[in-house]
Amino acid sequence: MQIQSVSIEDYISKIPEERRDAFKKLFDAVNDNLPKGFVESTNYGMVGWVVPLSTYPAGYHCAPGTPLPFINLASQKNFIALYHMGLYSRPELLDWFVAEYPKHSNKKLDMGKSCVRFKKVEDIPFDLIAELSTKMTAEDWIGIYESLYKR
């Protein structure tokens, strides 16, 4: 289920009511803790944060002319998803997150390569996501991206 939206507010308004407050709280946990250099965005049917073209003119190699994505949030059919490219690309950050997760949640971590899925809103570890959001600057992400992905 991809939500079509023209703004972050529009996206959030289209989330099912029973998830909306938790989604907004998750959005704020990321937004309030990200280092300067990232900007809010709607892309790929999600809301998120990118490194803007004004900072990184080369942009995203998979979609030339678009900003470099970093974190996205999505309300899917059966869960809320957090996509964090740093978890995918930086093993030490992933190891930290996996080790910290049980300290913040009694639920099993449901995770793909960069995607953390929350099936129940009451199981979202907001403090952990806030801390995760502080762990990488835009400059860090550009350096990792250029060393690993840019061709």
Summary, kept brief:
This protein has 151 residues and is an alpha+beta fold. The protein is built from six helices and five strands.
Structure explained in plain terms:
The chain has 151 residues and is an alpha+beta fold. The chain contains six helices and five strands, in the order ααββββααβαα. A hairpin with a 4-residue loop joins strand 3 (68-75) and strand 4. Helix 2 packs parallel to helix 5. The chain is globular, with a radius of gyration of 15 Å.
Observed structural traits:
151 residues, alpha+beta, five-stranded antiparallel beta sheet, 5 strands, globular
**What would the average pLDDT be, to the nearest integer?**
93
Q: Which blocks of ≥5 consecutive residues have pLDDT under 50?
A: none
Q: What amount of the residues lies in strands?
A: 15-25%
In DSSP terms, counting alpha (H) and pi (I) runs of 4 or more, how many helices?
Answer: 6
Q: How does the major sheet shape up?
A: 5 strands, antiparallel
CA-to-CA gap between the ends? 32 Å
